[in-house]
Write a structure and sequence with these properties.
single chain, 6-stranded parallel beta sheet, binds nicotinamide-adenine-dinucleotide, 5-stranded parallel beta sheet, 15 helices, alpha/beta
């Protein structure tokens, strides 16, 4: 009998009001049922929102350095449980153990960064244009942050949202992807054990189109942070736009690696294999296009095909596996429709334009750097790009002209670090960033304060002073 899991609402593990559950299965062995998870309904979401309001009232008044201490303990617990969580994650998501350990590590890094931010969370004090007057700004918590996350980084992506949201003093409602509810459960257990007041976090499992939607459409959830497909993000964006909500969207990608004639080809080869086939290609930053300058095109393509053939596919929990299974049968069928390395692709073809989200690489030949940049930019997405070259002038020109949120030079399209801003342009995002210091702007409201201690009415822009 598999275990039956619950939601975490109003400080307790509770069964869903619907009485319905779904099976969470191991993608490497469909007969292995990890557990039954709540298929919750809108009523569960309503209870979560009511509880989060109480959590917010308390947590928003807790001093930020103290909130930071809780996140420090969260980081410590994640360190202790890194291996156990990584194994559970590989079992439900499929990617190999080295990668799920990396996924937990990203959560640890994010927790420790957030912990120290509790003693910064800077506002500004600037000179006023008037005498005997102070002008300053500081950050306030906003309210309830609704977090909707995808399946491919079951721990890291929730922590990118949750830890800064909590550090800023918000309460959070977490709706994990249906394919990875167990990792979500383990993360919430850590938060509670670390001493987070129970009503500050709520975990509501279930379908995005039911509970995710109920959260997005509720007026008492003023902040929504979503990572997932551009299609779902557009739906959420339409609702949030009408309701004037603060919204962060991180969506699809069609990332390219450019290899120039002068590149170190062995280095580029390691980079493209990791970028295209790591996480079985199921990364928003996966390399799905390889743009090769004409002189090295044939040779490098042969090198890629030779090595790609030798990659060892298998269950993620086995040491010798280099590439784990795809998340489920629908994803497998979608990728089978495209296959693995496509040579002779021309810019504009479907395989060169659409996000496949699997181990598929479209190879395009170009004359020079200008053409490579044009091909890179001519897609609807703009998450990451990579350039392999020894020409420093060309590299700096490309950094300016590649239309992406992230550009790597002599490194693959994947490899974000927790303390750096992360996000994409065009239809990948909506201008916000996760990671680093910038995410703290998203989860806090800036309040501007003027204190006039002159004892007289001083009118800005009218009572101007001479030196
Ligand atoms: P998805 O869009 O199918 O689902 C993401 C989440 O949205 C899930 O939790 C789902 O339950 C929820 N959801 C679905 N419909 C909803 C609705 N109507 N209202 C509210 N919530 C709803 O994405 P996925 O298949 O889990 O993840 C893959 C996608 O995520 C890819 O497109 C990938 O590029 C993208 N992704 C982007 C980034 C990034 O940072 N840019 C990172 C990881 C993944």
């Amino acid at each position: 009998m598999s275990e039956t899991f619950k939601n975490f609402i109003a400080g307790e593990w509770v069964a869903p009001s619907t009485g319905e559950y779904f099976d969470n299965r191991n993608p490497a062995d469909w007969n292995d049922v990890i557990g039954k998870f709540p298929r919750s309904g809108p009523a569960d979401m309503l209870k979560a929102i009511e509880s989060a309001k109480r959590g917010f009232a308390r947590w928003s008044k807790t001093p930020a350095p103290i909130r930071g201490q809780v996140l420090q303990r969260v980081g410590d617990l994640l360190v202790e449980r890194k291996d156990a969580i990584a194994k559970a994650m590989t079992r439900e998501m499929g990617k190999v153990l080295a990668e799920t350990r990396g996924d937990v590590q990203e959560g640890i890094d994010t927790a420790f960064y957030a912990a120290t931010e509790g003693r910064r969370l800077f506002g500004r004090t600037v000179p006023s244009e008037l005498r005997n007057k102070w002008a300053m700004s500081y950050r306030r918590p906003i309210g309830i942050a609704g977090l909707i996350t995808p399946f491919n980084f079951p721990l890291a992506i929730p922590t990118w949202k949750m830890f800064p949201a909590l550090l800023c003093g918000n309460a959070v409602i977490f709706k994990p992807a249906e394919d990875v509810p167990h990792t979500g459960h383990l993360l919430v257990e850590v938060l509670i054990e670390a001493g987070l007041p129970p009503e500050v976090v709520q975990l509501v499992h279930g379908q995005g189109s039911v509970v995710g939607r109920a959260m997005v459409e509720h007026r008492d959830v003023p902040v929504i942070s979503f990572t997932g497909s551009t299609e779902t993000g557009s739906l959420i964006g339409a609702t949030c736009g009408k309701m004037h909500k603060r919204l962060s969207l991180e969506m699809g990608g069609k990332n390219a690696m450019i290899v120039m004639d002068d590149a170190d080809l062995d280095l580029a080869l390691d980079g493209v294999l990791w970028g295209a086939f790591g996480t079985t290609g199921q990364r928003c930053t996966a390399t799905s296009r390889l743009i090769l300058q004409d002189k090295i095109h044939d040779r490098f393509l042969r090198m890629v095909c030779d090595r790609a053939e030798k990659l060892r596919l298998g269950p993620g929990l086995e040491d010798k596996s280099e590439v784990g299974p795809l998340i489920h049968e629908v994803a497998r069928q979608k990728v089978a429709e495209y296959a693995t390395v496509f040579a002779g692709v021309k810019a504009g073809m479907r395989v060169e334009q659409e996000e496949i989200f699997g181990p598929a690489l479209a190879v395009i030949k170009v004359k020079d750097l200008d053409e490579a940049i044009r091909v890179n930019n001519d897609v609807i997405y703009g998450l990451s790009s990579a350039l392999y070259t020894r020409d420093v002038n060309g590299a700096f020109r490309a950094i300016e002209d590649l239309d992406n949120g992230i550009t790597y030079v002599n490194a693959p399209t994947i490899g974000a670090e927790a303390h750096m801003p992360f996000g994409g342009v065009k239809q990948t995002g909506n201008g916000h960033r996760e990671g680093g210091w910038e995410v703290y702007d998203f989860y806090s409201e800036t309040k501007t304060v003027y204190v006039d201690y002159s004892g007289t009415l001083q009118r800005a822009q009218i009572d101007t002073y001479q030196t």
